[in-house]
Write a structure and sequence with these properties.
mainly alpha, three-stranded antiparallel beta sheet
């Protein structure tokens, strides 16, 4: 009986190990695919822009909505001044586990009502959790390790890697898009949870 129990336990441990390894490999593949997609759509992306995407998927938009009145005022001003580029497809942040970037062009072009869009954004913000800097830095380092092994010549990679590591050591987690990214792509979007985006998309008949 004891030998049988030991055998069952060994099989269980082996299956558990296979499951863990399989899950890790799947995560790595998802990270690689997310980076490939970003660089395909936005080839001028820096490591800083890649970081921003993965951070947004992990923590959402809540750090931007500490003051709702200010957030709305800033949103209205940005909406008024922006020029639509006809971007009507939401894009996953990072691997798309949690959050999406929903272009403001959808509002500018009259496809989604402003109130519905902003409400979905605020509802998504409630999903924000304060980052555990140590855990997030470890997770980011794993992502960087995967990116380093990919065959892409990302400008200023070493400098951005060192700068991001320094910021994280100082407890800073939120970064802006790089200036090159802003100049090249003129991004205008808000971060929404998958559930909020699906609901908004359904309401708009997209």
């Amino acid at each position: 009986m004891k030998k049988q129990n030991n055998f069952i336990l060994s099989v269980y441990n082996l299956l558990a190990l296979i499951f863990i390894v399989s899950g890790c490999q799947q995560d790595k593949n998802e990270i690689r695919q997310a980076v490939e997609n970003q660089l395909k759509i936005y080839p001028q992306s820096s490591l800083q822009d890649i970081y921003k995407s993965f951070f947004q998927d992990e923590f959402g938009p809540g750090h931007l909505v500490e003051n709702v009145s200010y957030a709305r005022e800033y949103f209205d001003l940005e909406l008024e001044e922006m020029v639509s580029q006809g971007r009507h497809n939401a894009e996953p942040c990072g691997t798309g586990k949690n959050f999406y970037r929903v272009p403001m062009d959808l509002v500018k072009d009259g496809i989604i009502p402003e109130e519905d869009y902003f409400s979905a954004f605020l509802e998504s913000a409630s999903s924000f959790t304060t980052p555990d800097v140590i855990a997030w830095k470890q997770q980011w380092n794993e992502i960087v390790g995967i990116v380093e092994k990919m065959d892409h010549d990302i400008p200023n990679f070493k400098e951005d890697k060192e700068a991001l590591s320094k910021w994280l050591d100082q407890g800073e987690t939120v970064v802006h898009h790089s200036q090159v990214y802003n100049n090249q792509y003129d991004p205008h979007y808000r971060i929404m949870g998958k559930a909020q985006w699906e609901k908004l998309k359904s309401m708009a008949g997209l």
